[in-house]
Every structure is written in C-alpha cells, then in structure tokens.
UniProtKB/TrEMBL annotation:
Residues 18-435 form the Major facilitator superfamily (MFS) profile domain. Keywords: Membrane, Transmembrane, Transmembrane helix, Transport. Pfam families: MFS_1. It is a multi-pass membrane protein. Its main location: membrane. It is found in: Membrane. It comes from Aspergillus pseudoustus. This is Major facilitator superfamily domain-containing protein.
Length: 452
C-alpha cells in the first residue's frame, strides 16, 4: 500500500509540473493559428483586399510546412533537450504572429502563414511524446485530454479576446484585426518562452524528483511497456526506426481516424464565426457565440478520456463521439439556412462535442500500442503530420461563395467522419488478431498486450 501511495504522490508531482505548462503553451499555439478566423470578420479581408478564395489559400498554406516538418521536429526533440527545442519553437511562432499584424497585402499574409506553420509544426507531436514518456498507458489519455482541452479553451478565449481587442481599432492608426495578431504574438514571445524553459525533459533527469522517486518512476514505466519500452535503447537516430513506421499499415489507419477530426474541425474553426454571423448576428456577437461551442467540446473531450482510461479500452471512445458528430452534419444538411437560426446554432454544438474527443483517443491508442521509444516518437509525429495535412482540405471546404448552406462542406465532413468510424473498426480487428497471435506464441499472459 505504501508503494501505491508513493506512486500517487509522484504522479501528482509530475502533474503539477508538466501539465499546466503544456496547457498554457498549447493555448498560445492554437490561439495563434486560429485567430485568423476572428481577424477575418474584424476587417482583415477588406483591409488586405482579399478576393475570391484568397482567404482559403491563406488558411491552406499553413498546413504544408506544419505537416511535413513534424517528423524532423520530433527527431530533433530526441537529439536535444526538449525544453530548449520547445523554447525555440515558441519564440519563432510568437515573432511570426506579431509580424502578421503588420502585413500590407495578400502576399505578406501568405508568407507569414507559411512561416507560422513552420514554427508551430513540432509542438503538438513534441507534447504528445513527452506525455507518453512520463505516464503509463491508462493514464496518458486523461493527461492528454487535460492538455488538449486547452485547444477548446483557446478557441473559446479567441472569440472573447478578439471581441475586446477589436475595439482597439484606430489606435496607432491600425485596424482592430491587426491588434489581434500583434498583442497575441507579443504575449506568446514573452510568456511562452519563459514557460517553455520550465518544461521537464525526461523522468531520468527530472530535477523536481528525488533519486528514489526517479528510480520508482523509471521502473514503473519500464514494467508498463515491457522490455521493448526500455529507454536505454540509445539516443541516436537510426533509419530503421523511420522505415518501421512508414511500412506499418496501422499508422495509415490512424491517419484516417485523425482526418475525421482535423479535416472537419479545421474547416469548422475557421468558418464558424462566419456561419454564426450569417444567422443574423453582428460580428461582435458572432465572436461571443463561438465560446459555448468550444466549452462543450472541452467537456466531452475530458469526459471521454477519463472514461476510456478507466475502461482500459479505446475504440468505443472514437466511434461513439464520431457518431455524435456525424448526426450534427446530417442535421445541418437537412435544414434550410438561415431559416432556423436557433436550430442551426444548436446543431453546431455536435461538431466540436463529437469531433474533439476521438483525436486524443486515437493518439493514446497509438502510443499505448507502440512500446519502442524511438518508434513511438516517430509514429506520433507521422500520424499527427499526415493527419494535419487534412487541414489543407478542411480549410477549403467552406468557401465564402457557398454561404449560408455550405452543402459541400457539410457533406464532405459527413463522409470523412464515416471513414474515420470505418477505419476504427478495421484497426480494432488488427489489434485483436495481433493479441490472438501473441497468446498463441507466448501463452495466456504475454509480456505486452495490445490495447483495444
């Protein structure tokens, strides 16, 4: 009983040191990439003279470097101190965000969006990997949900912050939308960099743990993942790790599951202020009305993660929420717009409510079933990178000319959500077969069993 109390005390010490820092950094990250949706209805489109699909292109170009650089970023993370690498990323994207507030034309906006995607590319896979090396398999999703819920907080806070900052229009001769970028960018540089330098690097070197606590934690994590999870495998990158990941079909199924979130929610996040404004609300009220949607998404994400960890199973907590989201898209397709603004607004709750939880469950599932340390770092980066390429699709699903019905956007989101549900069942079947094979070879109590 004493050792269990010691473990709970150690985990609580880790929680206090790691989770709040990662949450705050992710708030800045998500706020800085998504506030362009708030800037759009605060006057950016008119001031930069954006025409046709130029706004959607500006959204899209962010995702190419963001997705392609996530694997290299996690390799760098493994080769140097994570705290230093994260600090470099935060300083870079905060600087770019500040400069985005002074762009004068479409070309300048495109350039800053590309650099923003480059600078932010490594943070989410880095944070996901860090959580996986500090916590056991049926702790990690709950911890990830608390961390990831900060995206919901950022989305909600973005509307409130934009509502307040927009009133600065005219100060310094600048539009309100410019101040959204400038102030949030400066805050990122100042606070984000200070926080990043406080990120603990690894259990083996944690300065806030005693030698005894570090030993208990290290043994606990090695028991959880079996011998293949031993972090003593070395710190040098080998190409076999990347080849092993790229030839693993399970990763591509995880990407399909991830797309149910990234394609639908990136399109939703960038468009929902406009959707609400088209229901007859003012721009300011549209900013405020986005807040409850994301709060609801945060609640469902944390609830599903806690239930999944307690049940020690993943797939139902992907399929269930996605069905919830799917029903939302069906409803939005079925009703005329903007004839029923109250009903439309109510159906919008189903999208973040059902779309946010599966992403974390998918990543926890992948992390749980990848005991090898290097492969886990690269696998998470590949799935997050390829998954975020879905943002290039999502950012183009709701063009301005399709308002207020958005038939194409809602229909394609419905299709991608259905595909994610199908991919979940296929992946579940593969893990069941792999467990059966392990029982056949190793007996009824294999050293490592894949989580379903």
């Amino acid at each position: 009983m004493s050792i269990e109390k010691d473990i709970r005390r150690i985990v609580w010490k880790i929680d206090k040191r790691l989770i709040p820092i990662l949450m705050m950094l992710y708030i800045f990250s998500f706020l800085d990439r998504s506030n362009i949706g708030n800037a759009k209805i605060a006057g950016m489109t008119e001031d930069l003279n954006l025409r046709g699909n130029q706004y959607n292109i500006a959204l899209t170009v962010f995702f190419f470097p963001y997705a392609l650089l996530e694997v290299p970023s996690n390799v760098v993370l493994k080769l140097m101190r994570p705290s230093r690498w994260i600090a470099i990323m935060v300083l870079a994207w905060g600087t770019v965000m500040t400069l985005q507030g002074i762009v004068q034309n479409y070309s300048g906006l495109i350039a800053t969006r590309v650099f923003l995607g480059t600078a932010e590319s490594g943070f989410f896979p880095a944070a996901s990997y860090l959580l996986s090396i500090w916590y056991c398999r049926f702790e990690v999703q709950t911890k990830m949900s608390i961390f990831y819920s900060s995206a919901c907080i950022a989305s909600a806070f973005s509307g409130l912050l934009a509502f307040a900052i927009e009133k600065m229009r005219g100060i310094g001769g600048l539009g309100g939308w410019r101040w959204i970028f400038i102030l949030e960018g400066i805050a990122t540089v100042v606070l984000g960099t200070a926080l990043a330098l406080c990120v603990p690097d690894a259990p083996e070197t944690a300065p806030f743990l005693t030698n005894v606590e570090r030993s208990i934690l290290t043994r606990r994590l090695q028991r959880e993942y079996g011998r293949s999870g031993d972090r003593s495998e070395g710190h040098s990158f080998q190409w076999k790790y990347l080849k092993s990941c790229l030839t693993d079909v399970k990763l591509y199924l995880a990407v399909i599951i991830y797309w149910g979130n990234s394609i639908c929610l990136y399109g939703f996040n960038y468009t929902v202020p406009t959707i609400i404004r088209n229901l007859g609300y003012s721009s300011a009220n549209a900013q405020l009305l986005t807040v409850p949607l994301y709060i609801f998404g945060m609640v469902t994400t944390i609830a599903c993660s806690i239930l999944s960890d307690r049940a020690k199973v993943r797939w139902p907590f992907i399929v269930g929420p996605y069905i919830f989201s799917l029903l939302g898209f069906v409803g939005l397709l079925a009703i005329p717009h903007p004839a029923y603004p109250g009903l439309t607004y109510g159906l919008l709750f189903l999208i973040p409510g059902g779309g946010y939880p599966p992403l974390l469950t998918c990543l926890a599932w992948l992390s749980n079933n990848t005991p090898e340390d290097w492969k886990r770092a690269i696998s998470l980066a590949i799935v997050i990178g390829m998954g975020n390429l879905g943002g290039t699709v999502g950012s183009n699903l709701f063009p301005e000319g399709h308002a207020p019905h958005y038939w194409m956007g809602y229909s394609l989101c419905l299709g991608f959500t259905a595909a994610a549900i199908g991919g979940t069942f296929v992946l579940k079947g593969m893990y069941e077969r792999m467990n059966e094979e392990k029982r056949r070879v190793e007996g009824e109590t294999p050293e490592f069993r894949y989580v379903l």
